[in-house]
C-alpha cells in the first residue's frame, strides 16, 4: 500500500471539516479550467513501455490503449473511464496498473490523486461494511472535488465484501455535475483474479483448436468474465449493479503465460537487475516453475510472479 493507505483513516476523520473548503474549491473550478491537478497523460510513452516490457498480453495492450484514447480525446467525457482487469496470478495486472498511473501522473502511485484500495487493508471486517460504504463514498466524493482527474484503483476485488462496491455506482455513470465537480473525468480501475479460470479455459480451448492467442474473441471473453463475476459470491461483483448496469467500459483480460513468456520475463528481470543474460539461467528459472494443465503443461501456474525471487537461486 502506498501513501494513500496510510492517510486514509486520518483523512476520513477530517472529511466533514474539509467539506467547506471543497465547496470553495469546487466553486473556483466551476469558473476556471484550473482543476487538472498535475494530470499529464503520456499515451505514446505508455504504448511504448507496454510494447517493450509486457509479454503475452495482446488484448491488454489493445483494450487499454483504445479505452484511454477514446476517453482522453474528449474534453468533456460523458462518463468516467471504468476498466476492469481480470486474470490469474502473476499475469501482469498490478504491473500494468502501476505503469498506467505512471503515464497519467508523473509521480505515479505516489501522486496524491491516485488512490489505491485493498479490501484486506481498508475493509477487513465484514461487520463494518455499512461504515466502510459511507467512508468510501465520502472519500471518493472528497477527492473528486479536490481533483476531477483522480484515479481510483481497487486491488483484489475478489476479496471485497459482496455489495460494498455498489456504493460507488453513482460515480461511475453519467452523473450530473454536482457543486461544480465534474465526476466524469475520473478513472476507476478494478483488479481481480475472478474470471481468471474462464480466461484460462478459453485460451486453452483456442490452443487445442490450433488457433493463435491473438485471435481470441474479446466479445466472447468479455461476456464470459462478466457472467462469471456476476454469479460468483466471491468476486466482489456478485449480483452487482455495476455489471448489471454495464458501467464497466473496458474489460481487460490477462491471458495465462506460456513458458516462452516466462523466459522473456526472466530476461527482462536479469536486464533490470544489471545481470548478464545467460541462456542456462533463463532455462533453469523457467523450468523451475509449475505449469498447467497436468497433461500438456502449457501455462505457468504463477505467471511471472515468482521470477524475480527465483533468479537468485540460479544465478
Ligand atoms: N505479462 C507480463 N509481462 C511482463 N512481466 C510480467 C507480466 N506479468 C507479470 N510480470 C512480472 O511479474 C511481476 C508480478 O506480476 P503482477 O504483480 O503484475 O501480477 P498480478 O497479475 O497482479 O498477480 P496477482 O493476481 O497475484 O496480484 C511483475 O512485477 C512483473 O515483473
Ligand atoms: Mg496483483
TrEMBL record:
Cellular-component GO terms for this entry: endoplasmic reticulum lumen; nuclear envelope
Which Gene Ontology molecular function entries are recorded, alphabetically?
ATP binding; ATP hydrolysis activity; identical protein binding
Q: Which domain of life is it from?
A: Eukaryota
Protein's gene: TOR2A
Does the UniProt entry include the keyword DNA-binding?
Answer: no
The alphabetical list of record keywords is: ATP-binding, Endoplasmic reticulum, Glycoprotein, Nucleotide-binding, Signal
Extent of the signal sequence: 1-21
| Annotated ranges, domain Torsin-1A C-terminal | 260-314
Task: List the subcellular locations.
Answer: Endoplasmic reticulum lumen
Q: What is its main location?
A: endoplasmic reticulum
InterPro entries, sorted: ClpA/B (IPR001270), P-loop_NTPase (IPR027417), TOR1A_C (IPR049337), Torsin (IPR010448), Torsin_1/2 (IPR017378)
Q: Where does ATP bind?
A: 87-94
Hey, which family's this protein in? Belongs to the ClpA/ClpB family. Torsin subfamily.
Question: Among its keywords, does the record have Coiled coil?
Answer: no
Its recorded name reads: Torsin
